[in-house]
């Protein structure tokens, strides 16, 4: 189903590319990244609310983009003059969360459960919109960046306390929430916390440092307990357990059900990326295979196939049923929150992490399901290409750079498989070059007009121009991933996906950092 034509532009971009276009794109991406850092730094001292500790809806989220940039600096070929600015800038965004301006953060780390539950509880424990988000960021900062400060140990203890309590909150659903399959979604709750845990585990497993202080924190038994296989397994089991109950309620209402089903914060059966089934499955598919395997064939993949059966012409409805009241907006959209983007990321994760068997006999039914999933991904990508030039602008959550991510991850798969040409790569780069001309970047671009026939600009100023999900901090994440992929290809890297992080706080080719 098509989205409202007033939401998007007709896509006249050219996805073809050659060596010259690739080189010019690398230059454009590098310039867009540098400009983004300048713009983020310029807005730091604005009369905004930099101390509100919510990654999705405040300035602290910009630290995600900056931390990712620091972690990718080598793969990006980031100039030292730019890289050296990042540590202090990151600290300025995260630090205010740990001051007395934020009593919530101290309450969230309290050992008194009654105090903690006022601000950190089931349904409010995910990375994007809850207090564990900045806690994951602070511990990531201390493990990634060489510089130390006098208050680091205190901030670490507070952050660790928040994560310990966040883990506990994931298991505190009320009986009603548990029986209805409520509130495990990526944006608000358990699936979002699980993303942070897996990302932290991956970062710890890959750490290389001789710094005694960082080694001590990386080996802290309290942190290791949160990211252990046992803890990850408990989170996965809780999500599946709740989903089985939700499936039962769904069956009572509709007469049929997938093996697992969850309701979102509006108590509707959302299907998309940030609130719905696609987002939860996306995170589960990126759990280490040894942990997720017991649930893969009985719960996860059959639910994935049920979800794909709801797809129409490559797009995904906002909720089931499609004629349900759409409290959050139109039933059909083309953005990460709802629509084709979430299922596309779910399917790219499936392709990257569950490769098709190349040896031995594969039953015909398994082959047919695999082919259908591949076809559904192709349909998603074609739909996003058709309707993905969103008038909302540059952002990852409701805009063009977010819609480029499925193409970028599919391109990484193509190149990893040895393809010399990738339609998805051409599409991703065309979208990202076009996005570099949008406010507030406004770089020269010749991809497609940025004005209406009457000369008025198509894209107006953003309400939050530097935020992670609504502005250039998120766009910068996608530009950086694209540049890493191009650099890897140019340098003949053994694995072209090395250093790519994926959609902010969602991934798409494995969760590699809690960012």
Automatic annotation (TrEMBL):
GO terms for biological process: carbohydrate metabolic process; peptide modification. One of its GO terms (molecular function) is metal ion binding. One of its GO terms (cellular component) is plasma membrane. CDD domains: euk_LANCL. Zn(2+) binds at residues 337, 397-398. Gene3D superfamilies: 1.50.10.10. Keywords: Metal-binding, Zinc. Coiled coil: none annotated. InterPro entries: 6hp_glycosidase-like_sf, LANC-like. SMART domains: LANC_like. This is Lanthionine synthetase C family protein.
